[in-house]
Amino acid sequence: MGLLRAAGVVYKPVEQIDLGPGSNEFYLTANVKAPRMAGFLVKMFAWLLESRIIGTLLLYILKRNNLVHKLVSNATLEEPPMFVPLHPFVELDEQQVKQIDSDASPPERVQQAINCLPSNLEQSLDDLKPSCFRRWTIADYSRAYSYGEITPLRVAEQFIEAVRESSSLPSPMSFFINSDTEDILRQATESTLRYDKGNPISALDGVPIAIKDEIDCSPYPTTGGTKWLHKVRPCTGDACCVARLRSCGAIIVGKTNMHELGAGPSGINPHYGTARNPYDPNKISGGSSSGSAAVVSAGLCPVALGVDGGGSVRMPASLCGVVGFKPTFGRIPHSGVLPLNWTVGMVGILAGTLEDAFVVYAAISGQLPSHEPTTLPPRVHFPLLNSTNPISNIKLAKYAEWFNDCSEEIKTCCSNALHLLCERYKWKTVEVTIPEIEAMRLAHYVTIGSECSTSLSSHLEKLDYAELGWDARVALRIYGAFNSEEYIKAAKMRNRQMQIHNNIFAKADVIVTPTTGMTAYSLADDALKTGELDYVNGAAIIRYQIAGNFLGLPAVTVPVGYDKAGLPIGLQFIGKPWSEPTLMHIAFAMQALCISDCRKPKVFYNLLRKT
User: Which DSSP string corresponds to 334-352?
Assistant: First the structure.
């Protein structure tokens, strides 16, 4: 292929880049050149890619035409590679926070978080007007249990009934890959006894929480959305984050559906059915944490865990109208999570409200197991969301060309929400330029693809490919086409973008963007059995996600409105390393301005009903 070698970009030194609004840096839109394929077409494409000669040629053409060669493979970068996005802890001058004892137990951390919340969050089940919709929160469950309005056992029974009903709809919702009725009832019975004795472990006691099937959780196998991975990698116990939730008394209700191997943003799974969007079951829920977003949106759980390797928590959260929160890389232990993407993946939280995301974050964050890579353990601060003095002088960086590279309805909705936020709290928007966003997206794709392929290589050698979905077969073939030089070039791009983003954060507290470039698109019948390749829509959905993963930055999405079809729209805030408290303050402020307009999904279950 030497004669066809594409010229690579020569990147100028970071210190020569103008990050101001008048910069001459060119915004390159996603250059995706690939037709949508499903059904027979995706099968044919997979066969061609897997052939030795034709496949090699096709992979070369795909990488060249989609600018991987120009922007990554053949590029010249002076920066040394940064293989892991570890951030040294810096004491940030954050407002309205309190430091938490690093040795506090998960239940103690949960109580500390509860103490940081406004006291008016707790309401009787009868207090809301019929015209007002909101999802029940952790505080609602805890109060209802403590006041004897309902028991964890009754909630568990209604959960089981709701899951059964959702699976029997004309278009099954396919929320879960595995959910064990006996195990749920056992946990609920134990929780009910604790409340009967007046000794709940924490505010999470008896609260149903779902776990993405990429995270180890007994008594379930960890399938990763496949039909085979759990056979070669048995689950031997709870992941650290799950164990911490259990220690708080939470009821683990099952393993949620996901895109196979996390290899796509749609959430379509040909093996276990496709988790559908509760706002419109004919639309995607987003991926790869599709089931986790859908169960929260539909009211089955106030909170679920996901894994975010390329927006896989924030994208489905936005498409399903809930909060999605991804902490700084290294903040939450990753032990017990499928090792599909070591340097970009991170356990994240999907919740009906920012407060609930905060409470679960408090439970599962903390000191990392000693075998995990980290710098000096960062200090833990919680945001005082109950403060009567809102944080002030916040600066939100906005790159206009990037911000506006979305559908007209999303641009209008997010712009209005941002204007409302700044007007209400007297915060300021700072216009900036963030260069080389498309190059970063491709470098991230090289990284996550290389790590996934390497992680699975020993299993794939022995695997009958008939056990894979067709879209996953294509993804794995592309992932395996990246070489060590490209991985190193991508790591050099990570270092470069880290410096660029640090310079942006010298001007502002957070970066603000829409969460996705489009709202949930329609599920096509031909994709349900084979999966689909839709890289154009995929690029639109993932457009604003990459910095959070590739650079290990914390990020949160908050629902701020709906398009004309009633589909949710999210606004995203990306923060400095270790700035979770400030991010939560900002997200909480945004939520307060929008939550009264929250709409009830078409598929919704009220687990706190008394009859």
Answer: -TTB--S-TTT--EEEEES
